[in-house]
Every structure is written in structure tokens, then in C-alpha cells.
Amino acid sequence: MVKSAETLERLFAESRPKSAALFETGKDVMPGGGMKSLGYSPPLYIDRAQDCYLWDIDGHRYVDWLNNACAMILGHSPKGVVDALDRLVHNGIVFGAPNTFEQPIAEHICQRIPSIEKVRFTNSGTEAVMNTLRLCRAYTGRTKIAKFEGGFHGTSDDAEVSIAPPIDEAGAEESPNAVAEYKGINQGVIDNIVVLPYNDSEAVDLILTENKDDIAAVIYDPKSGNYEIPHEFLRFVAGKCKELDILFVMDEVKSLRVAYGGYQQLAGVDPDLTTMGKLVGGGMPVGAFGGKAKIMDMMDNTTGATGISSGGTYSGNPMTLAAGLAHMEEATPEVYAHLKELGGRLTQGLKDVFSRSDVPARIVSTENIVSAHLTPDPVRSYRDILKFDRAMRHRLKLGMLLEGHYARELQELTISSPMTNETVDDFLASLEKVLQDKD
Question: Collapsing DSSP states into helix, strand and coil, what is residue 225?
């Protein structure tokens, strides 16, 4: 029944002395010692990556089940992306002017996602969301944004409301309070966020109807492979927005990896605007947002000032666009079919492995994103996540790292195209070992 946290923490730290040393010296010049915190100490410092593998500075190899927060659908350093970057790096990295890499990837995105007629580029998914919400307010003249409790939309102030609020501050389940995720977010921002509950159509209907004259847009995170939300619920939300003349924004920063045309293709919805990132950059920093031309054209100031625009020194830079186009072109429907097949194998395998253990688990999956939630109950909202056995999640995370699997807490495990049946089966065998190990 899984080794103790004390034993696992000791084995982990003792076998990674270089990471431990670098972490300590990093504290002198960086708050927390480094930029990424994944909940274990010492944090792993990665030296290199290739295909579906990572190597840390102590020489340990891991199968990468996180893929840089879902971004690397083709694994690390795919040849087409590397070749695109190599051609450009010798020809000037960034120009500070329009470049010939913009239109090809814009055309690809518009062809790939039917709801998008025009698109603009940013440097991150956070920036894409920030610009999109500003555009929604400008277009409608309304001030409020509605989002779902537990939905994640990056790190701008508007987005970091009611992601994981303390339950004693969260309010009633059917009418959640707007709660700042961190200190420093202005109260005025919080006052302009309306929070909705997942999987409660009646409550969503009531809240949106009551606030329809003030809400510019609803932004929707499908929680792919994380929450159990039927497509019918998303279709209801999109339909209600259309009925009430509220813009509907689909956040596909992560979920563009679950289907060739994104989650909106799976669910059969036609959003007004879509935010993107991760997959669109091929590993380079990227964000993008697009949608109906009548809305996006507010960003066109070529014939006179419209009162709103978007830009940035590195927005739409050639390196990102070249890498992104190569990445998206190689992420074909056939690649998605391969990912779906492996995702199904992983989903069923996790159910089988946990059924033979004394650790209860609920397996949730969307195509190629899979989560093993340590609860026997359905996971339909953020509040269900509070039921998880957090101590056991920590133990499983360390146990799997020691077995060579970079898999966080078995949350949002993602498949990459270099993986095979054997990759999945090895993961499942390692998990079975960890679940049965004792001190």
C-alpha cells in the first residue's frame, strides 16, 4: 500500500543531489529558488528532452506525461519544428516589422477551426485571454465577465478569480462568490467577475439572465480530462449566451490538443471568440485569439482608430510563428487518432490497476488527456476536488518519479505522438508497483 511519504521523500532527495544543490543556490537570486514549482523538493532541473523523454541534471530519465502543461503534442524537439527554427535563427530572430510567417499560420488556424475567421497573436495564453476579454468589453460596451468556478484562464487579474477558493469563502454551490485567487487583485476587478457553477444548467440560466445587461462575455474552460462535464452542458451554455446576446468565448489554450479542431469540434459549438496557446507555438512562447470577423475587426485600425488594439514587441515573432506552423501542420488528424487510441488504453488501464489496489480512484478522460482522481465519487466541479486524498496524491507523485515517470499527481496526463502501447503499458506497470510497494 504505497511507501510512506517520509521514505519516498528521502529516496527522492538522496538520488538527486545536483538538483538539490542548484535549488539551494537559486534561492539567493530567485524567490523560491526557481521558476517552476511542481510540489516536490528538490524540484527537478531538466537538462534535455527528446521525443517523450526528459533527463534531469542527475542523469535520470523520465517519460514525460505533462508535456509542458499539455503543449507538446508531438513530443520534444520534433524534426519539422527544429528545422523551421534552424532555418530562421541564422536569418534574424525578430524583425520589429510585419513578416511573411504571419499569414500562413493565420490561414492554417482559420481553416482548422471553422469558428475562427480572423486571428491575432500574442506571447502567451494569458495574454490571449487578457486581450480577448478587453475586446469583449469594447465590442459590447458591458463591463462584466462570467467564468466558471474552477476554470483556469491564465494569470491576468480577470482570470485569477475563483480558481480554487477556500470553501468557507466560495459561497453557495449554485451561486458561487467571486473570490480572488491571490492578494493584490483589485476589488474592482473582482466585482466585475460573475462566477458560474459547472454542471448546473438551471443555476447558469438564472445567473446569466439576471446579469445579462452587464455581462460582456462568458469564457469557458472545458476542463478536458479533468472534470466530468457532458457536451450537452457546454451546448446549453453556448445556446444561452446566444439567446441573451452575450459573447461566448471558448478557451482552447489547453484543449486544442483533444481534437484537430479543438474541444469545440467535439462538442459541436460555434463560439464567438476562441483563445489559444501551447500547441500553436510548437514549444515557443505563444498565444493567439480569434473569432468572428465582425468582432475581430475592432482590432483593425488601418482606416481609423477603433479605440482598441493589441500588440507587443514579441507578438507574432517569426521564430514562434515558424515553429507553430510546423507543429500544427504535423499534428494531423492521423496523429490525433493515434493519441486517442493511446488515451483510451491509458484510461482503461488506470481503471484496471486501481481496481486491484486499496486506493479508490475516479478516472476521467477526454481523448488524450487523462486524470486519476483519488476519490470514488464523480468529479463534476471544483468542490469535488476538495474530497481528494492529498497525502496519497503526494506519495503517488514521488513514487512515479522514482520509477521514471514525470506525471505530477496523475492529473491531466497527456499523450504525445512518440508514445506507443509499450509506453502506456510501462506506465501502468510502474503504477501497479508503486501502489503495492511498502516500506
Answer: coil
Q: Among 330, 353, 376, where does a domain finish? A: 330
Cα dihedral sign, 403-408-409-413: negative
Beta-sheet strand order (sheet of 215-220): 118-122, 287-291, 273-277, 247-251, 215-220, 144-148, 193-196
Domain that holds residue 256: 79-330
C-alpha cell at position 11: 529516496
pLDDT in tens, 81-123: 999 999 988 888 888 888 999 999 999 999 999 999 999 999 9
Same domain, 418 and 337: yes
Q: 408 in the Ramachandran plot: left (φ > 0), alpha (ψ -120 to 50) or beta?
A: left
The full length of the chain comes to 439
Cα separation, 123 vs 312, whole angstroms: 8
Same domain, 215 and 286: yes
pLDDT surpassing 90 at residue 175: yes
Please give the distance of CA 263 from its chain centroid, rounded to a whole number.
12
Q: Which three cell numbers stand for residue 67?
A: 508535456
Of 299, 314, 330, which closes a domain? 330
Q: What is the pLDDT of residues 6-40, one digit of tens each?
A: 999 999 999 999 998 998 888 889 888 777 766 67
Q: What is the model's pLDDT at position 73? A: 96
- The CATH number covering residue 363 comes to 3.90.1150.10
DSSP code for 237: H
Name residue, grid cell 473570490.
179
What's this model's pTM, rounded to 2 decimal places?
0.95
Torsion angle (degrees, nearest 10) of CA 273, 279, 283, 288: -10
Residue 229 · residue 222 · CB < 8 Å: yes
- Gap between the Cα atoms of 312 and 308, Å rounded: 14
Residue 300 sits in the same domain as residue 419? no
Phi, psi of 175 (to 5 degrees): -145, 75
- Within 8 A by CB and 6+ apart from 204, the residues are 196, 197, 236, 237, 240
